Amino acid sequence: MFLVLFWPQFEKDGFVVLENFFKPEEVDELKSAGEEFTTNLPPEKDRKVFDTVDQRQSKDQYFLESANKISYFFESEALESDGKLKVHPRVALNKVGHALHWHHPIFKKYTFSEKVKEVAFQLGLIEPAVCQSMYIYKNSGIGSEVVMHQDASYLYTEPVNLVGFWIALDDATVENGCLHIAAGSHKSGVHRRYLRNKDPLAQELLIYDKPPAYYQLSTFRPIEVRRGSCVLIHGQVVHYSKPNRSETSRHAYTFHVVETQHVNYSRDNWLQPPKAGFPLLYMN
Question: Entry's InterPro entries (predicted)?
């Protein structure tokens, strides 16, 4: 089976593409569940924007409290200042997160599928837990940029043992904003962290401990994949995606797995586990 062959490349490059990870009918079910969120949007006064460039969510209690719920985040270009939509509801959302894997039956089914468990086993994870999940829309025309980053900046563990599962629900191309990854960049450590602000009087609830690192654009390459593919992403590999100005969407479902045996999940991370802890992958 192809799963036993991916480890050398993952260790070398910090990512690997598993093609045809989910069947077409499974992708359809995931995408249908994601699109259903657009039919029941929050009221205008409760609509929040997610933007990796301006980082507006860093001042937003709604974002901070979204770790263990299903919360809605809009594209900045989708809303008027009063929360009214500028665009059709089907293309207004940036993402929905961050506990789809636990609170939504469809996403729970696929997150804890035997395929995912087999990958985690092949990665040598002993007691992996799912710490967050997101449905990412990257809608045609207004899908926003995701700046260069490492996932471990946000979900830091000591030692770092974090893996992202990024499932393409549309063909991801250069035109519609596919991932760009700097192969091998996972070997350079964690460059900065995104932390809960300890100053109770500050407007920023979340802050970075360092300014952004500088990365040479030439070190990145586009990762174009077909729908149903899974891109495994090492927690320290640097990646980004460009805005989607094309006429086709680039939906994806992504979740992150952390090792819990002999690994400490930082209490400074923005996302904190529920009282019962993150759900263990092998136990569900």
Answer: Phytyl_CoA_dOase-like
Task: With beta carbons less than 8 A apart as the criterion, state whether 242 and 138 touch.
Answer: no
Q: What is the pLDDT of residue 270?
A: 95
Mean pLDDT of 115-137: 96
Structure tokens at 113: 């599928």
In the predicted model, is pLDDT for residue 201 greater than 90? no
**pLDDT tens digits, residue range 9-35?**
999 999 999 999 999 999 999 999 999
Cα separation of 271 and 255, whole Å?
13
Tokens found for residue 50: 């997610």
Give how far Cα 92 sits from Cα of 9, 142, 167, 276, Å: 37, 8, 21, 34
Check residue 200 and give its pLDDT.
81
Q: Which residues contact 164 (CB under 8 A, 6 or more apart)?
A: 151, 231, 232, 233, 234, 235, 254, 255, 256, 257
- The structure's pTM equals 0.96
Give me the count of residues in the chain: 284
Q: d(Cα 132, Cα 272) in Å, to the nearest integer?
A: 10
